[in-house]
């Protein structure tokens, strides 16, 4: 860098002086004295060239710019002396020297060179005056003082102006370097962000040729095109962009399959001065994500199957308990055989239905909720439940809705919910002195409410917050899946389920289902 600066310094100064001399000779600057002056000037130029060459060849002197500039001032003085002194046309070389030096030396050195130039000019003029004193006369001395003073002021003024310009230039250079560093820093940060982003990024020119791709994008595409050079190829060779460029400015993320790998791709048009300038493509390899989604779906399905199995076991246990009780009574001969046989038959049919329902749930083979008449289903459940009650239990059913009332539900799941609430009420009576179950069906605002009240043991305050959690049961032999599934099923029908309970006095469970009508769904 320093060597280049020195070469520029030496070549530019020689070029400047030679051009100036050439112009002077062309325009006949020497006039009458040209014939007498040309030989000394030519010899001075040759001598000066030799001095510069020797000076440049000495490595220790080469980097010392100020001494060679002082030699320039002396050389200019010789030229001025041989071309007429104060009347010479070469005075301007002093000003050119100061301007030229201002680009290469510090301020203090520039003022030093200005002082040397002024001294050299004054000595040259004084020497010329004393040599030609008989020609000029004493009065002429005052006449030459004016140009000396003018050049004195001009040289220092030029030095001052150049110093100010240099300071301004250095400040601008410093600010420029600072801005360049900031831009470089931002560019490095941008590149770092782009390089570390998990998505692939591609930009193209207006002909859709790829001119940039980040490392992550290269990693993605190398799995598909291991031997293909990505930069410079047309985007259509990688992604099927079709006629997107002609139709849309933005293409939202879409999934495309390339050689057994799935990519999510988003494409945006880039414009400069309202002119299409290329595309920005952001893409992500979704192959592993899709595999994980399939695994998650499988796990969800298995988890759901586990819950359904628990539900099936719950219902199966209820039916087995009824069958066992009927058989025990048959052995003891405490009931009519035909009635007990009917109970067993009903429970066997119920188990068969449970198995069918279980298979339907496992295959997701059930209907979506819809508005339908609910009374036939409720009455069927109530009649089935009555067969499980012994004479010690007082049962009431209160129906306060019209025959044509339609409710938003799905029959298979709702039947499980209602039957589970009734069986829980029955279990709650096992340790109760007064055994009573009341079922109410009534309207309230936009809902039809199915309410089951029992006079059983109630629910402890500490257990109320966990009553709908899976695998939590308030019964010693319970699985803890019935209420959890009931809440899930009711939520799927856009309904609600809640309860009130007091320990030792009983519980009330309510199911809220949307009814059809202006206040309904």
List the helices and strands and how they pair.
Elements: H1 2-26, H2 34-57, H3 59-62, H4 65-82, H5 92-101, H6 107-131, H7 133-136, H8 138-196, E1 200-204, E2 210-213, H9 215-222, H10 244-247, E3 250-258, E4 261-272, E5 275-285, H11 287-332, H12 337-362, E6 370-373, H13 375-386, E7 394-399, E8 406-409, H14 411-428, E9 436-444, E10 447-454, H15 461-464, H16 482-492, E11 496-502, E12 506-514
Parallel strand pairs: 7-9
Antiparallel strand pairs: 1-2, 1-5, 3-4, 4-5, 6-8, 9-10, 10-12, 11-12
Helix pairs in contact: 2-4, 4-5, 4-6, 5-8, 6-8, 11-12, 13-14, 14-16
Characterization of this structure:
The two termini are 82 Å apart. Strands 2-1-5-4-3 form a 5-stranded antiparallel β-sheet. The chain has a 5-stranded mixed β-sheet with strand order 7-9-10-12-11. A two-stranded antiparallel ribbon has the order 6-8. Helices cover 57% and strands 17% of the residues. It has 521 residues and is of the alpha+beta class. The chain folds into 4 domains: 2-176, no CATH class; 200-285, Beta-Lactamase (2-Layer Sandwich); 291-365, Helix Hairpins, CATH 1.10.287; 367-521, 2-Layer Sandwich (Heat Shock Protein 90).
Pattern of helices and strands: HHHHHHHHEEHHEEEHHEHEEHEEHHEE
Give the number of domains: 4
Q: Kindly report the spatial arrangement of strands forming the biggest sheet.
A: 2-1-5-4-3
Main sheet summary: 5 strands, antiparallel
Total of helices: 16
Helix content: 55-70%
Mean of pLDDT: 76
pLDDT < 50 stretches: 28-36
Class based on secondary structure composition and strand pairing: alpha+beta
Measured by DSSP, the beta-strand proportion falls in 15-25%
N-to-C terminal Cα separation, in Å? 82 Å
The number of distinct β-strands equals 12
Shape: rod-shaped
Radius of gyration: 53 Å
